Amino acid sequence: MKPFDYQRATDADSAIATVSRDPEARYIGGGTNLVDHMKLGITEPGKLVDITRLPYDSVESLPDGRVRIGATVRNSDLAAEPVIRQRYPVLAQALLSGASGQLRNLATTGGNLLQRTRCSYFQDVTTPCNKREPGSGCSALEGWNRHHAVLGASERCVATHPSDMAVALAALDADVLLEGPDGQRTVPVTELHRLPGDEPEQDTVLRHGELVTAVELPSLPFAARSRYRKVRDRASYAFALVSVAAAVEVTDGAITDIRIAFGGLAHKPWRATAAERALHGAPATEEAFRAAADAELAEAETLRDNEFKVPMTRNTLASVLRELTQQEGS
What we know:
Layout: E1 5-8, H1 12-20, E2 25-28, H2 34-40, E3 47-50, E4 59-61, E5 67-70, H3 75-80, H4 82-87, H5 89-98, H6 101-104, H7 109-114, H8 165-171, E6 175-180, E7 183-188, H9 189-192, E8 211-217, E9 226-231, E10 242-251, E11 254-263, E12 270-271, H10 273-279, H11 286-296, H12 309-329
Parallel strand pairs: 1-3, 2-3
Antiparallel strand pairs: 4-5, 5-8, 6-7, 6-8, 9-10, 10-11, 11-12
Helix pairs in contact: 5-8, 10-11, 11-12
């Protein structure tokens, strides 16, 4: 591991100033992803600015019904927070499925959002990878690609985003609050992560020096009946082959509002807008659920080893919506 300087931030302004003026500086919170990458030689920051002592470690219910989650709230604490379990159970379920208890006790809200792909070629510095070394090629295209993307990929990168939490946040229409050298701004979580295109090395729209300070959940009453389903190779905290986050409202047997996001299918959490359009106003039936999945997956492009993801996604979405709509009618 390359030697680096370490600095513990005492306030946001100084942390942002330090990182902004040094292109080799990085923020560190729980470090559950960044430290691994430093050990592997994927990234070699010259300076780490520790933000864990900044005042972003609380969950706050706002007067207008929104919920603000500080960027340094630990995943374990967020999953156990009563307002999250009651009003946004899909988020608590996603967090609990995302990692072991030991990792959840360290990992933070901001860090979880910004974690990088677990593509085996990205993590192996002896292999070509456009995300790690732009222009070197994508080993996964002709290599082992069982876990890789079927939506939104490019010839330069077929990696998937690993976060479970981010999939739930995408379904909930969450916003990400940022602070940087140019001031504050808010980015919808659905626009935070980038598709690979010609620049797969750029994971997000964050500018250097920008700091995630919070995530805000909208007031969404029907999200109290929501679910996260993760399909993986083993129950002991593997990354998703396919995941579904969904919230649905049913009135007189018809779907009146719905939110769906997929994980394990793309370079970013995939908001299923085509499926949502197909289901809005439709009867809450198995046929409608499967037709909506097909509408979303119409543009899917599979690789040699991951064709199974298309029927798996269809079946998982239908299962989740069937359970939620039966729950609505109970």
